[in-house]
Design a protein that fits this description.
- Chains A, B: Pfam families: LacI, Peripla_BP_3.
- Chains A, B: GO terms for molecular function: DNA-binding transcription factor activity; transcription cis-regulatory region binding.
- Chains A, B: This is Transcriptional regulator.
- Two copies of one chain form a homodimer.
- The first copy, chain A, is of the alpha/beta class.
- The first copy, chain A, has three domains: about 5-55, 434 Repressor (Amino-terminal Domain); about 60-160 and about 300-325, Response regulator (Rossmann fold), CATH 3.40.50.2300; about 160-295, Rossmann fold (3-Layer(aba) Sandwich).
- The first copy, chain A, has helices at about 5-10, 15-25, 30-45, 50-55, 75-90, 100-115, 130-135, 160-175, 195-205, 225-240, 255-265, 285, 300-315, and strands spanning about 60-65, 90-95, 120-125, 140-145, 155-160, 180-185, 215, 245-250, 275-280, 295, 325, 330.
- Chain A is elongated.
- Chains A and B meet through helix 4, helix 5, strand 2, helix 6 and helix 11 of A and helix 4, helix 5, strand 2, helix 6 and helix 11 of B.
- Chain B binds a DNA duplex (16 and 16 nucleotides) through helix 2 and helix 4.
Chain lengths: ~350, ~350
Amino acid sequence: MKTTIKDVARRTGVSIATVSRVINGLGGYSNDTRKKVLSAIDEMGFRPNAVARGLVSKKTHTIGVMLPDVSGMLAAEILKGIESVAKEQRYSVIVCNTNYSGDRSQEYVRTLKEKQVDGVLAVSEYMTPEKSKALLSLNLPVVLISTLSYSYPFPYVKVDDKQAAYSAVCHLIDKGHRRIAMISGDRADLIAGAPRIEGYVQALRDHGLSVDESLIRYRAEFESFGFHSGALCMEGLLRDKPGQFSAVFAASDELAMGALSCAYRHGVRIPDDLSIIAYDDTRIAEMATPPLTALHQPLFAMGSRAAEMLLDMSAAGTLEADSVIIPHKIIERESVRAL
Amino acid sequence: MKTTIKDVARRTGVSIATVSRVINGLGGYSNDTRKKVLSAIDEMGFRPNAVARGLVSKKTHTIGVMLPDVSGMLAAEILKGIESVAKEQRYSVIVCNTNYSGDRSQEYVRTLKEKQVDGVLAVSEYMTPEKSKALLSLNLPVVLISTLSYSYPFPYVKVDDKQAAYSAVCHLIDKGHRRIAMISGDRADLIAGAPRIEGYVQALRDHGLSVDESLIRYRAEFESFGFHSGALCMEGLLRDKPGQFSAVFAASDELAMGALSCAYRHGVRIPDDLSIIAYDDTRIAEMATPPLTALHQPLFAMGSRAAEMLLDMSAAGTLEADSVIIPHKIIERESVRAL
DNA sequence: ATGAAAGCGCTAACAC
DNA sequence: GTGTTAGCGCTTTCAT
């Protein structure tokens, strides 16, 4: 039998109300009883039942995190950031792996509602109108990370993708590159696809460089930002436009890894024959051979920032907050060579 | 105001007991009232409050997962497997990033107790006696993944590290290698450190090969299985024993990546000049240049298997279960060359 | 087949 | 300062 507040009360000879008071540090008891209660709690190994507490207080001290793939480097790092502040503020986090599925997402929203979470964070989720509606119907604080919704103005935390892509390409141009290819994720992706391409195009234009559509590659497939996709895009580039580009901007670390892998297979040396700059800068960027020069997103910080926002919102009882654009920067390593 | 079972009852004109019955499909009501209740639930968008349910049923349909680093490739993949079966069986999972800290672990155990989880999974946690004791005191089903406890026989799911290391080294020997170095994680690690070294030594001995202690490298530091450590160990090997080994067995993917990176920096080509076999085979193994031949651990499967065990235990009301040794295998890619 | 009522462990008035 | 009591939203006897 688990020990309850009642047991502590009986053992101490006070009422459960008093025990509750000292547990919650509410005051309204002598220093003497406080000590008695505290030591009883200690001796009995009593821990307040959070479920019972949640039922009456309507606060579960739990938040939900939805993400398409927990095992992705990006998501995992952000999750770590979230978990970190949650822990600090004594919150628990429930992970929901939506697996890129809208249906699954809907189910999770339902579950989170039943579980009475105090708020939800959506990481890299593709925000369809349905998903936004579901989240909205929770009537709970919601903060998006690395994504945003066009159907409802949920506050978000992300870098400016277009601007970041622009910076990355400018870096290449600064290094003397003129013929720059791009390996993108699905162009239909309005968050991480199209905007990065726009940044790429814009950078080229702003430097008086012409844009060759056939130098922009992507695959509209399942993991369009994945390793496999990167390798295939590079394959196409090497086949169709040999010697016609001196650098490539990859829209994700994995895409860059795929490109690297393909280049290696074809005997094209990085960065001697070809420069590559990646987007994300997850841990694999520095593990690559050669280490990837990359556009850095502060993943952990993004996660913790968003979690702070969410908990603040919850505390303030509001559903609104100002979105924050996180600054990005370029980490120079060895995959880009000056021409 | 949220709609409760009471609202549904009133709206339908039946008692809350009846509503509860149809929600739980317990039978004991006419088909007619069932339909009425169901449609009312639907119209009102009613969802049973899991917190209230948990309070009375003493089942929260929630499990806790403790791991030293959510953002690690290993853990993340295992977590995904866990989450997958949890979702299937309508369970939620709370992640606890212990950050390699014993204190943090203790705190989490307390939190999980308060939250009344139905069981806990510990992934790659270094099981000190204190941690085991804490977990044990929960009096709840516990299953370990990729680790085991010497202080208490918690059921676990893992591969046989010594045997797996043995296989990996045999693979190298089969390919004609005779001088084989090893880059290990902290030797003081009784789970993933020492056993893999033992497997390495055993394989050498069984093939009549001599064991050169100076060919075994590791660093007793924070992330002893990490990329940085791998690079440093390789550095030492290349410096101290140049040309004296034709292959290296790395005790983790990251260690192998570090070795690869260092080799590249020194102009030693993989696999032409040196072969490398890794342990783990997380997603980065295939992303490496060249792709790493590796000893594969079925991470996702390990996670899901353990979760199944845990939920079965919970359902059966037992704290015991048979541990399972997961079979491993070697994935041949391009980092090992036959001599 | 259905309802009344007693809790689950706790918090929060409200008394004294 | 401390106790009593009324719930929180649900499940579960026990009647009827």
